[in-house]
C-alpha cells in the first residue's frame, strides 16, 4: 500500500543525493506500485529536466517492462521552436521512444505564461490514453518557485500546497516524480551520461514572473 504523498516526498528528498535510474525506479514504485505492464507518457520539452527523466526511463524500460512514449508540445512562441521539436524527435528516435509533436496556438491577451501552460495541458490531456500515466519533469526548484508565486498572489492553503506528486488528469493520472530532486542533480546526471538538451531563453527572461523569481529572488533566499 502506498503511503501518503507527503511522507513519501520527505523520504525521497532526504535520500536524493544523486539522481539516477535506480532512484527513479524506487520513486515510481512508491507512486504507482509495480511498473511492469504500465503505460508511461513523458511530457518531453527537450530541456534539462524532461531529458533527464526520459533518459532515465529508457534505462529502466527493459528491466521493468513498461510501455513508454513521449509528447512534445510546440507553442510556436520562440524562433527556435521548430528546431527544438526536431531535436526532441531526434533524441527520441535515438532512444527508441515513440514521440508525437503537437503544435498549439497560445491565446493572446493576459499572461503569456498562463496561456502557454493552459494550451500545453489541454494538448496533453487530449492525447492521454485511458489509464495512462503522464509524467511531468517538474523538480524541487520548480516547486519552490511555485510556492513563492502563490505567496505573492495571496493564495490560500490549497495554493500553498503547490504541485502534487500524483493527481487525476484527463483519462489517466499525472505524475511528478522529480519534485524531490534539485535541478542541479538533473543537470549533473545529463553531463555524466553525455546527453545534450535544449535551452529555452524564456527561462532567463525576467519579464516573466517565474523567471524573475528564479533569477533574482531565489538566489537571495
Round the mean pLDDT to the nearest integer and report it: 86
Provide a count of the helices.
Answer: 9
Please report the distance between the alpha carbons of the first and last residues.
37 Å
The portion of residues forming beta strands comes to: 5-15%
Radius of gyration: 17 Å
Q: Determine the fraction of residues in helical runs and give it as a percent range.
A: 40-55%
Q: Structural class from helices and strands? A: alpha/beta
Q: Pick out the low-confidence regions.
A: 1-10
Largest sheet: 6 strands, mixed
Placed side by side, the strands forming the largest sheet appear as: 3-2-1-4-6-5
* Total DSSP E strands: 6
Strand and helix order:
HHEHEHEHEHHEEHH
Morphology: globular
Structure description:
- The protein has 221 residues and is an alpha/beta fold.
- It is 49% helix and 13% strand.
- It has nine helices and six strands.
- A six-stranded mixed beta sheet has the order 3-2-1-4-6-5, with helices on both faces.
- β1, α3 and β2 form a beta-alpha-beta unit.
- α2 packs across α3.
- The longest helix is centred in the first third of the chain and has 17 residues.
- The N terminus is likely disordered.
What's a concise summary of this model?
By secondary structure, this protein is α/β, with parallel strands linked by helices. It contains 9 helices and 6 strands; from the N terminus they run ααβαβαβαβααββαα. It has helices spanning 5-15, 21-32, 48-64, 81-94, 112-126, 140-152, 157-160, 183-193, 209-220; strands at 39-43, 67-74, 99-103, 133-135, 166-169, 172-175.
Amino acid at each position: 500500500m502506498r503511503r501518503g504523498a507527503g511522507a513519501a516526498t520527505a523520504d525521497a528528498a532526504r535520500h536524493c543525493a544523486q539522481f539516477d535510474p535506480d532512484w527513479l525506479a524506487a520513486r515510481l514504485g512508491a507512486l504507482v506500485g509495480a511498473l511492469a505492464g504500465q503505460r508511461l507518457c513523458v511530457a518531453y520539452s527537450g530541456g534539462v529536466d524532461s531529458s533527464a527523466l526520459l533518459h532515465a526511463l529508457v534505462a529502466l524500460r527493459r528491466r521493468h517492462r513498461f510501455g513508454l512514449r513521449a509528447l512534445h508540445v510546440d507553442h510556436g512562441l520562440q524562433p527556435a521552436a521548430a528546431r527544438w521539436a526536431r531535436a526532441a524527435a531526434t533524441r527520441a528516435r535515438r532512444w527508441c521512444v515513440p514521440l508525437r509533436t503537437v503544435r498549439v496556438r497560445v491565446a493572446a491577451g493576459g499572461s503569456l505564461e498562463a496561456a502557454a501552460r493552459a494550451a500545453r495541458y489541454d494538448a496533453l490531456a487530449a492525447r492521454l490514453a485511458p489509464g495512462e500515466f503522464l509524467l511531468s519533469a517538474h523538480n524541487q526548484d520548480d516547486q519552490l518557485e511555485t510556492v513563492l508565486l502563490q505567496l505573492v498572489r495571496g493564495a490560500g492553503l490549497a495554493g500553498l500546497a503547490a504541485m502534487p506528486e500524483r493527481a487525476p488528469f484527463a483519462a489517466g493520472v499525472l505524475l511528478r516524480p522529480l519534485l524531490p530532486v534539485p535541478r542541479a542533480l538533473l543537470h549533473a546526471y545529463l553531463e555524466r551520461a553525455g546527453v545534450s538538451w535544449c535551452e529555452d531563453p524564456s527561462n532567463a527572461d525576467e519579464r516573466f514572473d517565474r523567471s524573475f523569481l528564479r533569477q533574482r529572488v531565489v538566489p537571495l533566499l
